[in-house]
Design a protein that fits this description.
The chain is mainly alpha-helical and 514 residues long. 75% of the residues lie in helices and 0% in strands.
Length: 514
């Protein structure tokens, strides 16, 4: 009977532990709402009027309007790139929880300024960058905190809650804009209400963070052992003297000491040089860089930020209807990202997910390029080819599926598992900073690409990147499913062009890999 109770206890979540996860996971709201709610609010008539984005005012300067729109949308991402880099140092100096709180304060203050910028273009751009600093720092601090409080057996599930909350908020943002569009008059109050809504849940989470503890792993790394043990017991909902707590505490302590010994003589610069002087490390480093580059330049975030405009180009009539379609797009991303993180990634593997996702993205881009260049009416006086338009709309959703099961999440996971402890932090930091700067570049140039390349050229460009990605990753990317982190080096031995068939030979009595 006692054995049965212990087995059941492994699958129950202590209420306080669930509360901590929910509070910290709210750190994904700034990024999610910016990609959904804020990006859609830029298309509200009230916002366009206040910040001179009405097309009638730019009749002879379509490129100027595209530049102004792109600046407003993308400057938050530029700030996030800098915030992610700054956070890497703050997380060790201040701790995970204090860094998370500081990032929330920076983001909330920047958001407050941008909500009340009142048509002042320069002030809005400053506020976007300032809020982005906080949003970017949260993208580092939030997953780090969640990974450090989770037991090993559920770490992937707990950390993936970050993406689930992010995509839920992203989808809700479009529906919030729809409600404001339909039920509110186009005054400043309309867009101010839409843009200030995320301040409520983040503000509540910030207040609640003062009753939750620092992570046990950080406390133990700072030699606050008794405090770390107490926090661990509280999170697990059990007595401090229980065997389970003792075993996990000893494991964390051993890992922390091993990491300290491994990194004691290695500065960040030394570790970075080692990634280039060691041939095995160099292959891993540049594979991750290639993966980040391909993932961003397939157009994923460009489409997400401007999906309302893209739906209208594909034949969705009316701004309100395009917002509903954009919300549906966000829901599709959420559902398939959940399927990916909670099933596909460990069932069919990282490599197959990446190649499947790129194939779906390529197919969607090819059709959208054909529709925009050949099948779409040249002017509004001609009727829409409804079957072709419906197929274009379906292609956008197919793209969402491909992006969600592929390169939307895989670079995050791959970057944390293919490197040894000695170079993991610096390698992952470099890849994430590149991720953010590329995302800024994509979001910034997408409106200009639509103008200068007449829509269809942008999709053709993204299709070419998808095709190149299929070849590069198809040859270079080994499967890491089921491979211990300590044995990743075996996958990268020998010529890079043989990575596609690399396998780790199982030890006696052990099953490794897919």
């Amino acid at each position: 009977m006692r054995r049965l109770e212990l087995d059941r206890s492994r699958w129950t979540t202590p209420p306080f532990y669930a509360f901590v996860i929910l509070v910290i996971a709210c750190g994904s709201i700034p990024k999610g709402y910016d990609e959904g709610g804020y990006s859609a609010s830029v298309r509200l008539d009230s916002f366009k009027t206040d910040f001179n984005l009405l097309e009638s005012n730019w009749t002879n300067d379509e490129t100027g309007l595209a530049n102004r729109t792109a600046n407003i949308t993308s400057f938050n991402v530029l700030g996030a790139a800098l915030g992610a880099l700054i956070s890497l140092d703050l997380n060790d100096r201040l701790g995970r929880l204090r860094s998370w709180r500081l990032a929330c304060v920076v983001w909330m203050s920047g958001t407050f300024i941008q909500v009340f910028a009142s048509g002042i273009y320069g002030l809005l751009l400053f506020a976007r960058i300032w809020a982005g600093l906080g949003a970017g720092a949260l993208t580092v601090a939030t997953p780090l905190y969640l990974s450090e409080i989770a037991p090993t057996r559920t770490r992937g599930l707990i950390v993936s809650i970050y993406m689930v909350v992010l995509l839920t908020v992203l989808a809700l943002g479009f529906f919030i804009n729809y409600g404001a569009k339909v039920h509110m008059s186009p005054t400043r109050i309309q867009y101010r209400l839409v843009q200030s809504i995320p301040l409520i849940p983040v503000g509540i989470a910030f207040g609640a963070s003062f009753v939750i503890p620092e992570t046990p792993r950080y406390l133990i790394s700072q030699y606050r052992l008794d405090q770390g043990r107490n926090v661990l017991a509280r999170l697990r909902g059990t007595d401090i003297s229980s065997p389970e707590i003792e075993d996990e505490f000893n494991l964390i302590t051993t890992q922390t000491r091993l990491r300290a010994d491994t990194l004691s003589s290695a500065s960040n610069w030394t570790a970075l040089k080692e990634t280039q002087t060691n041939p095995n490390y160099r292959q891993r480093f540049w594979l991750l860089i290639a993966m980040q580059t391909i993932s961003q330049w397939t157009g994923g975030n460009g489409i997400t930020y401007y999906v309302s405009t893209i739906f209208e180009s594909a034949g969705v009539t009316g701004n309100a209807t395009s917002l509903i379609s954009s919300g549906a797009y966000g829901i599709v991303k959420l559902v398939f990202t959940m399927a990916f993180t909670w099933g596909l990634i460990d069932y069919i593997g990282r490599r197959r997910c990446a190649l499947l996702g790129l194939t779906l993205q390529l197919a969607a881009h090819v059709y959208l390029a054909c529709y925009m260049g050949v099948l779409r009416p040249v002017d509004d006086s001609k009727p829409i080819n409804e079957p072709a338009s419906n197929a274009a709309i379906a292609s956008i959703f197919i793209y969402a599926v491909g992006w969600s099961v592929g390169l939307c999440t895989i670079p995050y996971l791959y970057g944390t598992e293919i490197f040894p402890t000695r170079i993991r932090n610096v390698s992952y930091a470099v890849s994430m900073s590149l991720h953010w700067f590329f995302q800024f570049a994509v979001v910034r140039v997408t409106p200009n690409m639509f103008v200068s390349l007449h829509d269809w050229g942008a999709y053709l460009f993204w299709a070419i990147i998808c095709f190149v990605g299929l070849i590069v990753l198809g040859i270079w990317m080994p499967e890491t499913k089921g491979v211990d982190i300590e044995r990743m080096g075996e996958l990268f031995e020998g010529p890079w062009y043989l990575r596609w068939r690399a396998r780790v030979q199982p030890k006696e009595g052990e099953r490794v890999g897919p």
